[in-house]
Protein 1
Amino acid sequence: MIDKFTGFDDSEDKINEDFEPEQINLRQLLNDDFISAHSECCTSIDEILERCGGGIDLEKLDSYSMERLNKAVSGCTEFSSWPEMYSEAIQEHLMG
């Protein structure tokens, strides 16, 4: 039985050196195509936050309660919460 493979340590280091995670902002992730596909009444994240969130500003998202974000999302999309929508957006982006 082989206890250890040899010759792979260097290639693993090379892969790790070359890997740079993709940077994507929230507006790119929750783009108009994504919103349109998951909402019957809105075509943009700004429209969801305005119409169903009472004027939530995407640029100041950290200042709002999760309850308010969930209300906006559940009121204007097929999702029941902000985390559910965000998770789906990430999955769709990664599946590309």
Note: The first helix runs from residue 9 to 18.
Protein 2
Amino acid sequence: MSIPEAEKRKLIANLNIRLTKVSLVSGGRDVLVYTTISGAVGALVPFASTDDVEFMTTLEMVCFSSTL
């Protein structure tokens, strides 16, 4: 299976170059903060409760429905 050239460039541009486990607040939960070779910065934050999951699910549905 061959990957199209545009997808190859996209994959290379989004390579993580740094991944760090940190606490954003003293005594708070640990999160993973990452940077990519293209300059993007992101964070992976664990859900603390089912309310968090429900909120993010609803937010995701609203975001996807508004872009279509």
Note: Residues 50-67 form the longest helix (18 residues).
Protein 3
Amino acid sequence: MAGLLVIAAVSSGRALTAASFAASAVNGPNTIATLVVQPPPTTSASVGPGGGVHVAWDASPTAAAESVTYRVLRSPGGAGAYAQVSASPIEWLTYDDVPAGDGTYDYAVLAAVSSFTSAAGPVATVVVDVTAPTAVTLSAATGKTAVGSIDLTWTASSDAGSGIAGYVIHYAQAATCPAASASAYPSVVRVGPVTATEVDGLVRHQKYCLYAEAEDVAGHTSAPSNVASATAK
């Protein structure tokens, strides 16, 4: 990515090097110089277990001739609304950030030499997801089509981070429904990100108890839904 051309007035007493300055011209006691600061050529970002983001980048090529510092920028994913998250310019090549919550974030790094600043370097995108999806509300009714079936519907779960991957339906044949737990409901049906399904292969005219959980793409599971019951067709 090309560097940002910045114009600044500096004291004529400063030593200018051909490696640092693209051009110069004398204007009275001041020297008007243009310094092209190159951005970092690469940027990477990864999410830790607690939702912190580790940002790393390669040194600006300008660092071969000048003392370069860096500024780390963050934007909500795809929004292009970047704000500096590093409290002050930093000299090293990594930064650890803690976003306010789950979501998709873009990171970019720019380089600076004094008041001369580069364009932002390449963008690295991460998805932060440390929160489980919301629980759903389940409804059950005797199946309308297949023999030995129960029809289920539920409210959609939401997840601000990685998104909903699907739902897990737990069920058991019981005269009285126990509290929701994997041990009390050993049979399981997994479905994608839908809000209705049919559980079949059940014993006709028998009562079944069921509950549902949502799963997000990151692997988190919601709290159990309410327990619903219905008689298989």
Note: The longest strand covers residues 103-113.
Protein 4
Amino acid sequence: MGRTTGSFPRDLYETFKMDNFSFLHYSNIVMHVTAGLIALISGLIILLVQKGGKAHRKIGRTFLVLLAIVVITGLFGVLIFGRNTFLLVITVSSGYTGYSGFRAVRTKSNKPKSIDIFAALLGLVSALYFLYYIKSIGMIWSPIIIYATVGFLFLVIAYDLLRYLIPEKKYKNLWFYEHIYKMIGAFTALLAAAVGTMFPDYKPYSQFLPSVFGTFLAMGFIVYFYRKRKHLKKEWLPSKKS
């Protein structure tokens, strides 16, 4: 039997040493991939079930928990294990968009909340840091992916900060369409990251085509529910009689 340190074999002791990140890194990757895969399955189910129903709300909460795990493990991968820094902006983008989509349906209002402003500013600082980092090391990733990802994040954050200027009466049900667009955006951000990782030989198409699909999907849902609500409103209006 090999030498031991305490009651553990030396090789097991070396595995768990803090200066040896291989085991922790591998565990982090497993958690990240597993949570991401289940989140994608949950997101797909949400797209198929009745919107606003019990199943939608329950699976939606599960999706958000899994998204939080993906974000945390993704940040660990970048900040602690020194993995691909591009994961930082993808992680921040999917995490912030999911958070903002959840807050839209939770508050159903555009009244300023300190926690929402803080989250928006944190996302903005993260995106600006990423652009600074890219400029310092050179453009080593596809420009179309970098600008599209960062641009989308800037767009969402800009809207979230400017929507406070919209009069409350005009804001009305915009939160509903915000929720649709942002949650589908978070789902397709995870999908783009997964497809891009699984099919690296087809980059950048494997990275941005899922996002394009998500955009059309979100717009389709928004148009569908807008027309449905408009139709229901007409049915509830009293008919004009001469």
Note: Confidence is low (pLDDT under 50) at residues 1-9, 11-19.
